[in-house]
Amino acid sequence: MDNTARFRTRAVHAGHQLDPATGAHAVPIYATSTFGYGDAARGARLFAGEEGGYFYSRLSNPTVRAFEEKLASLEGTQDAVAFASGMGAASAIALTLLKQGDEIAFIAPLYGGTEGLFEMLTRFGIGVWEAHDVDDLRERLTERTRLVWVETPTNPTLRITDLRAAANAAHAVGARLVVDNTFSTPALTRPAEFGADLVMHSATKYLGGHGDAIGGVVAGDAETILELRLHGLRHVGASLGPFEAYLFLRGMKTLPLRMDAHCAGAEYLAGALAARGDLKVFYPGLPSHPGHALAREQMGGRFGAILSLDLGDFGAAQRFLDHLQLFTQAVSLGDVESLSSHPASTTHQLLGEEVLGKHGITPGLVRLSVGIEDPEDLLEDVTRALELARRTPAAAGR
Ligand SMILES: *Cc1c(COP(=O)(O)O)cnc(C)c1O
After folding, report:
1. What is the pLDDT of residues 51-110, one digit of tens each?
2. Catalytic residue flag (residue 111)
3. Which of 30, 158, 259, 280 is deepest in the core (most CB within 10 A)?
4. What is the pLDDT of residue 260?
5. Catalytic one of 190, 205, 229, 367
6. Which of ligand 1's atoms lies nearest the C-alpha of 334?
């Protein structure tokens, strides 16, 4: 497909071609572990990398390849490589590109699993340190820092990082910038345009969009992606299955449409809730948010669909969650269905009070992943739950 086509066109078409064997219009699920060489000489050429082609699905599979091509097209990078989960993608980056004595720096906070991975890396002689913001990062970067890792907006307090400034700081010491673009998706932010070297996703979230598959992917320059495939994928082995790749391909066709609906719903909800004046609302789309102007520039005039509310104390947060009807209480985010969570007692529980306080993850904080339902219904649900949370004690046994 013509890669100069516009974003929505690429979301539909990139990575697709009529199946060469049958003409099938949808990308078939190639449920096969291995691929016949045809003859011995070709087998030798495939293994030597002298000829392109599939030979074992841990390394590459046609359905998975179509997903990789679509994502690379949407992120505007040369190539991409898929993994069995977002954490599989993150581990492959770290294990492929770092060695003993190297350092990894990140702007806190990151997704809990990523911070957990970094903690494991310290056991192998890799230094890990966190910066509060880009200025702090720039001051402390050294030649030993090989990777700089950022998320924007962050989870769950929606802080915004200036990607161009982070890329410049990383490049000044020869480090690579890795951006976890799960929250924004390429429909809003394409980090490579701001200088990011590698862009990773938990495809589980918005790329899939329907809460029915776990997967991950990394996009970047062809040489680094090949290195990730030949080491981080081949030797670590978190390979995406063709069934999941099929679901992601299908989900990504509507990514731009879904993101429009997600963002519009979140903006409507955040605006209405902030206007009440009795709640603290965290959402980059609110003019009062410290990252508002930067987010507007970096996210194409939209602000994502995750917002957090501070209800003041743990009891009120719990009662509010228990009274919501349209927001399922569950981890994950980015599904067409709205989801809700209480970070301090669930996903961020292990961090301890001091670290929670530092990141502003208070006992009253509730995170909402706004789905694509009618925003009026969502606001009615939230408003009713807020009134009930004020009036009634926690509903027993719900
Ligand atoms: C969910 C998530 C991950 C981990 O992805 P999995 O697919 O669950 O392994 C990484 N980063 C962010 C920002 C996430 O939300």
Report:
1. 999 999 999 999 999 999 999 999 999 999 999 999 999 999 999 999 999 999 999 999
2. yes
3. 158
4. 98
5. 205
6. 15
Q: Counting beta carbons within 10 angstroms of the beta carbon of residue 230, is it exposed (0 to 12), middle (13 to 18) or buried (19 or more)?
A: middle
Q: What radius of gyration do the chain's Cα atoms show?
A: 22
Query: How many Å separate Cα 218 from the centre of its chain?
Result: 10
Please state the atom number of ligand 1 nearest to the C-alpha of residue 333: 15
State the pTM of this model. 0.96
Per the document, the length of the chain is 398
Q: Say what the pLDDT of residue 356 is.
A: 86
Compute, in angstroms, the gap from residue 19 CA to the centroid of ligand 1: 32
20 token code pair: 């060469």
Residue 253 CA, ligand 1 centroid: distance in Å: 21
SS3 269: helix
Both structure tokens of 86: 């977002």
Do 206 and 258 form a contact (C-beta atoms < 8 A)?
Answer: yes
φ, ψ (nearest 5 deg) of residue 170: -65, -45
- Whether 253 sits among the annotated catalytic residues: the reply is no
Nearest protein Cα to ligand 1, atom 12: 111
Query: Is the peptide bond preceding residue 156 cis, with omega within 30 degrees of 0?
Result: yes
Domain ranges of the chain: 7-30+61-253, 255-391
Q: What is the DSSP string of 237-258?
A: --PPPHHHHHHHHHHHHTHHHH
Classify 161 as helix, strand or coil.
coil
* Cβ atoms of residues 61 and 30 within 8 Å: yes
Residues with CB under 6 A from ligand 1: 85-87, 111, 113-114, 151, 155, 180, 182-183, 202, 204-205, 214, 216
**Ligand 1 center–CA 396 separation, angstroms:** 32
CATH 3.40.640.10 for domain 7-30+61-253:
yes
The reply to whether CATH 3.90.1150.10 applies to domain 255-391 is yes
> Known catalytic residue: 99?
no
Distance CA 327, CA 381 (A): 8
State which H helix or E strand residue 341 sits in: strand 339-341
Which residues in the chain come in under a pLDDT of 70? 1-2, 392-398
CA of 394 to the centre of ligand 1 (A): 31
Nearest Cα to Cα of residue 305 among 386, 368, 374, 215: 368
Helices (H), 19-61: 40-48
